Amino acid sequence: MNAPISWCAKKQPMVxxxxxxxxxxxxxxxxxxxxxxxxILKEMEIEVSRPIALFIDNKSSINLAKNPVLHxxxxxxxxxxxxxxxxxxxxxxxxxxxxxxxxxxxxxxxPLKVDRFxxxx
Length: 121
Fold this sequence. Notes:
Elements: H1 19-43, E1 52-56, H2 59-66, H3 71-74, H4 83-89, E2 93-97, H5 106-109
Parallel strand pairs: 1-2
């Protein structure tokens, strides 16, 4: 893909009770970065297409961001993390499922074999 990327690794500001919640919080933090970067890219005259695509590898967290019907399972998540849902509803962001096999950022966050990241021509 021919696009600017931003990458950050840090501990989450809370303890997640599930993988879905953890990925949802990570998606929220990524959404904050995307919203923050958009005016900077525009100032540098880099075209930003709307909605901004946010790639997440957890289908449950994608469903949580798109559909608040799962409220019973997510009511303990702090309100500030629903920033992601708000921007998806405003159509400023679109969430795209990214298979774990295509998740190249894992090389920075997990101990993986090198051959997983070597692509054949």
